[in-house]
Amino acid sequence: MTPQRWSQLKSIFNGAIEQPADARAAWLRAECGSDDALRDDAERLLRSFDTLGGFLDQPVQIDPADVALAEDWPAGHRVGDYEIVSTLGRGGMGVVYLASDRRLGRSVALKSLPALLANNPEMRERLKREARAAATITDPAVATVYSLEEVEEHLLLASEYLDGPTLRTLIDAGPLAATTAREIALQVARGLRAAHDAGVIHRDLKPENIVVGAGGTAKIVDFGIAWLERPDGTPHTKLTRDGAMIGTPAYMAPEQLVGQPPDARADIFAFGVILTEMLSGRHPLMAGAGTPMDPALQRIADRARETDPTRRYASAGELVAALEASSVSSGTGGETAIPTPARSARFWWEFHQAAAAGAYAAMLVPAWLAKAQIGGVEGRSVFVATAVAAIAASMLRLHLWFMSRQHAGELMWARRRSAPFIRLADILLVVSLVVGAGLVAAQSVLDVVLLALAVGVTIAFAFIEPSTARAAGLDTTGRV
Amino acid sequence: MPLVYDELRRIAARYMGRERPGQTLQATGLVNEAFVRMAAERTREFQNRTHFLAIAALSMRQILVQRARAKHAAKRDGGGHQVTLDDFSAPPSAVRPEFGRPDPDRPGDVNVLALDQALTRLAEFDPEQAQIVELRYFGGLTVEETAEAVGASPATVKRQWAMARAWLKQALESGAL
Asked: What is the value of pTM for the model shown?
């Protein structure tokens, strides 16, 4: 639509709505003349006008939660002692960021739970109580809650940052092998036992809340805060404007669905549904048969999700015992083993770091030869500069390599911190190699070697490293 | 601008603590409350009340669009709160056409994302009409307040408002955004 066309249409529209309804058609024909397209547009617009009804009649209705939660902190934003690295996601109760704790230099998953708390001391107290209880859970299968902090009007919950797919992603890829399912189930059951012993019920256990790391370690997240989704205890049945259900009633125990306050057995019910889903590849309420399940594990899953809470396992401890006593028939269940996301890409990135560290150390040899050839103060200076740069760049890379292998959760932070130093060392190395090449006797083959090394280092750090980092999902400019 | 934005969010947060979940309020109330709160301390930053209301309407539109995008992205990723490397890659621009249809259960309610897109298009050939819609719908301004904000007569605002509504309704229904 051109502005000229639009203003033509506007004057016809404004004129037409002044006309009595029965005279409008004739009036339009007269006004538009032979311009049929214009008349069509005007007629369509008038039809729409006649059927406006309540369209946009009232100002927009606002759910205060929508407005209150619509915050978004950019990377680099500082809140309290945390610096935002990136946004990981948004849930019904706030935004989750990857942040670095500047006091301790570690990566954390930072949940910002604002709004809720501005004027509701009761809720704030409850959250503090639950977070405190959740922080006492020490089990490898429960994501560690670090702290709950109040910064201005925000409440921030910092917890362990986990890097891996959720159980949902694994199940979506197909039923899990029975041995894998048992392994994950055991860890989750032990995590539940530890949490229940600490007096914390999850209330919203589901595959989305279980993160499976490389190597198959399962961790339950969001202990102690699931109730925030529906603080009055009502089940998840509120429909959003788009008609989607908030949350998933699919994992809620029957007694929870009718509004009774859930206890530990509600978590056990959810566990049973999840175990069934892992084994068969489909939710028990979905139509059709899934993959045949391992009989021993199926018995455990069935008992865990009995409709009558008194017929379920009485505690997560009993569940652990049953799983430990179970033996899985070999070859049952699906094929899906635990994938290692971006593993091969991460391998190449690690390989790059290790190889670069080795290659830089090896540069001491030509640098030493160059020192002998150049001689004097210049020779020594070139050697010292090359050696310092090569050793620094090499050590920093070895450090990153080590972090990636041993403390993957803190790798992002380590990379951010060391990136400027690595760049500096690389540049110094290239410069000293080029200077060395210029100073050695022109007829010497060392001249060529040093120049080639300088070019090689430049290519490696300007092109190869960024691409391996990007492939491994470590590119700091993109998503995590 | 960020000040008004933050004030709207703070007020909404207070409402959120007070009211039952799911209860809605009209843009008019929120925007006017923000004015009352901010007028006391920051009158000098705004030429007058309508200038403030216009900024508030724009802020409200941005807030609601941002929130709708976030919800949309979260829903497509399964709605879980814990997120991993694979999640939340949905580009905010990826709005599917079915989102343009009004919800049959809530007559008069429109999809914010679709409306925002349609408004952006309308602004290309008629910025005044688009602004009138923003003020009236997202800011809850009356015809008179709108007339003052855009510097036109109330009669003109009424005519423009009628045509903009007709065009937007047609645009949303045809889904041809």
From this structure: 0.49
